[in-house]
Amino acid sequence: MCAVFVAGAGPAGIMTASELSKNGWDVTLIEEHPNVGTPEHCAGLLSVTGLRELGINANNCTVNEINGAEIFSPSGHKILVEKDVPVALVISRKEFDLMLLKDAIKNGVKVEFESKLIDVRKENIFIQKKNRGELRKAKVVVGADGVNSRTREIIGVKPDKSHYLNSYQIRANGSFESKKVKLYLGSFAKGFFAWIIPENNSIARIGIATSFGINPKEAFDEFKKKYLLDFEKIEESSFKIPCGPPINEPINNNILLVGDAAFHAKATTGGGIIMGLNAAKICARAIDSNFRNNTGLENYKFLLKPITKELILHWKMRSYLNKLSENTLDKLFIRAQKANLGEFLSEHGDMDWPSRFIPKMLSKPRFWGFLPMLLRFR
Ligand SMILES: Cc1cc2nc3c(=O)[nH]c(=O)nc-3n(C[C@H](O)[C@H](O)[C@H](O)COP(=O)(O)OP(=O)(O)OC[C@H]3O[C@@H](n4cnc5c(N)ncnc54)[C@H](O)[C@@H]3O)c2cc1C
After folding, report:
1. Which fold has domain 2-44+93-160+246-315?
2. Atom 2 in ligand 1: which residue has the minimum CA distance?
């Protein structure tokens, strides 16, 4: 019997396994695919501060550095958020996951590929390994098996269908501004937005996500037509993104959920790596403390509170934006331009932790016109 069995070798699972193994626990990590980071289901945009705070040096998997973003309202009003230093990195997800995995293996994690978690009954874990069923035993099981989590299903948690997005993303050749990300809001991207994330001047990751039930490929074509975008597709992918509040009960007996499996992704942007990695460290801490001091595993929920609070804030912002008509969104952009929101966000903005800048907005008279909206986000 191993101490901890982690299902899913994405960033959240690898980090949880790695942290526990570093503390001396016997950890097995399984992944249903033959390697990590594939199929690539990510635009790979990570904040520089988020990585720094996690103590991760992603230089070796960085393909581009980003200085800012242009955000477009449905009629094309623009908010520019920009710094003269990089604020985000565009990474290769495959290389990033591989880098985390190499560290985890160094820390002693045992990894098994082409192994799929099928069921868990207390300390018994049923897996499928290349068409053969196997039984494993572990004291604690971590479900880090992503947006379609089997572990989440096993503990009986069923997120609302409306809390998922469908995405469609391509890598394309074209002509792009290499240091800026572009985000486009409008009815073509109901419930979310479209994005252009450059790898360099001639290659970008262009995508869209839309409310569940809407065909994201058709939405993408509408977006392309509206903005008369000219590019040549290299490759394409389509995946679900969790876009709702974090799961209320990410723990059930000896099973803990982390990362996308627990909806630890930001509902404003769909980004789940930084929050998932932070949650993974907390998950490892809760398990470690259970083994060492006999603290109940339910402590995980308590330790997660700062992240849960922030993710709920992201969800409140997303829910608010989704209720606005195109016309109201345009008006909001015009008011934001007049109040120099772009300038404020360039100085104080934070892609991951909006709670760090919203109180600062409340203290500036030029944003008091937004008070009813801002108060919803407290
Ligand atoms: C189009 C798109 C763009 C995105 N862009 C960004 C971005 O720019 N920045 C950002 O931060 N986030 C982004 N995200 C979100 C990000 O990809 C996820 O939040 C992140 O991958 C979640 O990490 P995770 O470890 O929780 O899950 P995953 O990375 O999904 O890893 C879960 C792993 O579990 C494995 N697995 C699943 N079921 C089982 C099973 N039963 N047994 C064993 N293994 C299993 C899977 O194969 C997978 O490897 C994007 C997502 C999409 C779809």
Report:
1. FAD/NAD(P)-binding domain (3.50.50)
2. 42
